[in-house]
Amino acid sequence: MLATLLSSSRGRTVTSLSESATGRELVDFERRMRLSLQERGFVTLSVNYRYYLDAIPALRTRFGAETLDVTAELLTAMRATADALGVDWSLVRRADRPGAAPQDAANLRRLVALAAAGLEERLTTEPEPLLVVEAAPLPRYDRLAVLERLADKATARPAARWLLLPVERGGAPHLEDRPAPAILSALKIPTKWIETHRRSKAS
């Protein structure tokens, strides 16, 4: 009987402490996000890769940020730029493969630089908070400098900029094989926060 009571008591205590710790984690996450909004800060957000797609609408709804899908916007701009220059899209695709001829790879990077101008301008001038997602093309095409500048504390930003990256459990946020900008101050999105938002949306 005593062993049963002790076991039961310990279980209740652990549950209580765990819930309390979870509550503090959620409150701290919200506090830091609100502070980022006020200070127009740059934050790299890491989230368990299983919750990546759920995190996007949750952050957008909760904090009023606009989503900037780098992959989608850059691909659209690349196609438009290629058309304007009279470059066949099949040539662009061929240049984007591993082992492409050096001249083809160089031409591709020039095309990307032209196509990325509008995206990079939006990142630096958009007056609303931006949630940056699917950003892998930036390091792939040597265009990561725009995020690195925005992550610099000395940079004046018109509004908050949040870079969302999926990670394995316990992993650090990376873009391709490079450490993410502001990796040392990266903020982990609590899984419980996303689950809570998902439940409230479903109810």
Mean pLDDT: 87
Q: What is the element string, with H for helices and E for strands?
A: HEHEHHHEHHEEEEH
Structural class: alpha/beta
Largest sheet: 5 strands, parallel
What does this structure look like?
The chain is of the alpha/beta class and 203 residues long. 59% of the residues lie in helices and 14% in strands. It has 8 helices and 7 strands; from the N terminus they run H-E-H-E-H-H-H-E-H-H-E-E-E-E-H. The strands form 2 sheets. Strands 2-3-4-1-7 form a 5-stranded parallel β-sheet. It has a two-stranded antiparallel sheet with strand order 5-6. Helix 4 packs across helix 5. The N terminus is likely disordered.
Outline the secondary-structure elements.
Blueprint: H1 2-39, E1 42-48, H2 52-63, E2 66-69, H3 70-85, H4 89-95, H5 102-125, E3 130-133, H6 137-140, H7 145-151, E4 161-167, E5 174-175, E6 178-179, E7 187-188, H8 191-202
Parallel strand pairs: 1-4, 1-7, 2-3, 3-4
Antiparallel strand pairs: 5-6
Give keywords.
single chain, disordered N terminus, 5-stranded parallel β-sheet, 7 strands, 203 residues, alpha/beta, two-stranded antiparallel sheet
Question: Could you give a quick summary of the protein structure above?
Answer:
The protein has helices spanning 2-39, 52-63, 70-85, 89-95, 102-125, 137-140, 145-151, 191-202, and strands at residues 42-48, 66-69, 130-133, 161-167, 174-175, 178-179, 187-188. With 203 residues, it is of the alpha/beta class. The model is unreliable at 1-18 (pLDDT under 50).
